[in-house]
């Protein structure tokens, strides 16, 4: 058995890039227009009401500025999860392109690392665009937007491997629909993206603090705004990196059981 080498995952990344070169137009709307629409609707439209209103939450900056870094992390989560859900199901079952991959010198580990590498590249592209948009809206400076990109990418990768492992265990796409309906969407709404976790009922706050998205939001917001971190940023970084490693291990095991006969 040949040892692991980065050359093989790089081949998978190259193949994914070649496919994306022909299909990228379909992602332009979500990549460029979603951040514009979200920041216009939630940051400017709703933000005007929030900034004029009153409440128990302490937000010391305009709502648009508060919201933008949280949406950056949430967008990375959505991208990482989406790119490791239906495309992986297609590779396993619908197009069976992963069977073709394993018919080459590439192994399961190469496939998983290559997939996560490609998702990482996609995340860098998506978060850079989002950073540019929130800078154009005046939510952050250029430098603040740039320093928020790495934790956002880490947030997306923390979901990518785990969702890939989950997808490899499914026989149809119904489980993915349930994942996004009952997992990803609630995280998007209740992990500190739109309002401080302190606004949630006390019994649910510990669960919210334990979510990877909350740690991503905490890092992005703290770095972009220069505000205090709710927890030590090293804890959040370690948490996300641990989930990335765990996801890669779980994905390798489940993909191996599913694809290697």
Helix and strand run? HHHHHHHHHHHH
**Number of spatially distinct domains:** 1
Q: Could you say which overall geometry the principal axes of the C-alpha atoms support?
A: globular
Gap between N and C termini = 16 Å
Question: Uncertain spans, ≥5 residues at pLDDT below 50?
Answer: none
Largest sheet: none
The overall strand count is: 0
- Helicity range of the residues? over 70%
User: Structural class of the secondary structure composition?
Assistant: mainly alpha
- Strand content of the residues, in percent? under 5%
- Compute the CA-based radius of gyration: 19 Å
Task: Produce a short descriptive summary.
With 261 residues, the protein is mostly helical. It is 75% helix and 0% strand. The chain is built from twelve helices and no strands.
Account of the 3D structure:
With 261 residues, the protein is an all-alpha fold. The chain has one domain (7-259). The chain is 75% helix and 0% strand. α1 (7-23) packs across α6, α2 runs antiparallel to α3 and α3 (63-83) crosses α11 (212-225). The protein is globular and about 60 Å long.
Observed structural traits:
mainly alpha, 261 residues, 12 helices, 75% helix
